[in-house]
Amino acid sequence: MSSNPPQAGRLPVLLNLTTNESYTLSGPTINLGRAPENQVILPDDGYASADHAKIYWDQGRWWLEDLMSSNGTTVNDKLISTPYQLAPNDIIKVGRTTFRIE
Fold first, then answer.
1. Single pTM value for the model
2. Measured between alpha carbons, how far is 19 from 1 in angstroms, rounded to an integer?
3. In 3-state terms, what secondary structure has residue 29?
4. Separation between Cα atoms, residue 97 and residue 2, nearest integer Å
5. Other residues' Cβ atoms within 10 Å of the Cβ of residue 101
6. Alpha carbon of 94 to those of 9, 78, 90: distances in Å?
7. Phi and psi for 56 in degrees, rounded to 5?
């Protein structure tokens, strides 16, 4: 994994479509789940695992990986089982929480 994300002017944003909270993808890894140590914490989503998924920068691209969650992770309504290369406007579902990459 490369630990150098792209320059600040080109960073994508993860938008929570329910709450409109946004998270700039600025670190090499962004973890999603119910546990408080995640960068994107989903405390009220009982369908999200404590450590559900991660978004990370590798080989010049952003990737999404399910962390063996109980209910799986989907991109554009398709369940992923291997790392998935993200693109603008992808819709990610973690538990019952839906995000869009902008």
1. 0.90
2. 31
3. strand
4. 28
5. 19
6. 27, 12, 13
7. -145, 160
Number of residues that make up the chain: 102
Q: Among 41, 58, 56, 57, which Cα is nearest to 94's? A: 41
User: Could you tell me if 101 and 92 are in contact, meaning their C-beta atoms sit under 8 angstroms apart?
Assistant: yes
Q: Summarize pLDDT for 51-82 with one digit per residue, the tens.
A: 999 999 999 999 999 999 999 999 999 999 99
Query: Over the stretch 11-53, which tens digit does the pLDDT of each residue have?
Result: 899 999 989 999 999 889 999 999 999 999 999 999 999 999 9
Q: From residue 30, give the alpha-carbon distance in Å to each of 57, 91.
A: 9, 16
Q: Which of 17, 12, 13, 11 is nearest to 93 (CA)?
A: 17
- CA pair distance 86, 35, nearest whole angstrom: 23
Do 57 and 1 contact (CB within 8 A), yes or no?
yes
